[in-house]
Amino acid sequence: MISIRISQRRGFTLIEMLVTLVLVALITTTIMQGMSYIWRLQTRSNRVIATATVADMHAAWWREAIRGLVTVPPQKVGLFKGTQHQLQGLSLYVPGRVPDIVASLACRIASHARVDTLTCNNQPILQLPAGSYFYYLDTHRQRQQTWPPSTGSYRQLPQTILIGNNDAVVWAASPLQPSAPQFVQYQYAQGDLAP
Fold first, then answer.
1. Dist CA 148 CA 37 (whole Å)
2. Which of 83, 105, 59 is nearest to 149 (CA)?
């Protein structure tokens, strides 16, 4: 005789399988939407960080160029000149030049529609609010619109060079102002003033 055993194990029904598949699909969709949102946020934040980093690097370069301004030998008094929209002098840190070699630095603020641009040696450095201008502080912290001022006796470099807008300071930098004996140690780039 053949005996047949009937198993009491029960399998999954079709409805149970469909419910499971629907739940897995919903969870997967929710996770994918969340991941897509995170990827978009990451891309946007990377773009903002890159833009801010470039602006910070340009601002740091401008400050270093101003810090690197040097005085000239006594027979060349008055080489650094500045107005509200441009300044020029010699600096140890000029874009496109080897550091620690004195080269000409010429910066200007050019006005465009709703924004001004600070350029140094014809390279755009910073975007500024419209109506920005240079001004200069002397050793008494008095504000001067041009350098050297038309009245009084002033040293060759201002104490601080500022970029202002509506009487607010946008950027500021101070020359290190090395003393005259150190001046003869500088090397000059070809075409720039030599002692």
1. 56
2. 83
DSSP E strands in the chain: the ranges are: 81-82, 86-91, 101-112, 115-120, 123-129, 133-137, 143-144, 160-165, 168-173, 187-188
Token digits for 82?
């500045």
Asked if residue 4 belongs to a domain, the reply is no
Residue 168's pLDDT band (cuts 50, 70, 90): confident
Backbone angles phi, psi at 88, to 5 degrees: -150, 145
Tell me how far the alpha carbon of residue 26 is from its chain's centroid: 46
Number of C-beta neighbours around residue 126 at 10 A: 20
Whether 61 is covered by a domain: the verdict is yes
Please indicate, yes or no, if residue 113 is contained in any of the structural domains: yes
> Alpha-carbon distance 97 to 93, whole Å?
7
Residue 20 within any structural domain of the chain? yes
Share of the chain above pLDDT 70, in %: 80
Domain count, the chain: 1
User: Would the pTM count as exceeding 0.70?
Assistant: no
The residue range of the domain holding 106 is 13-195
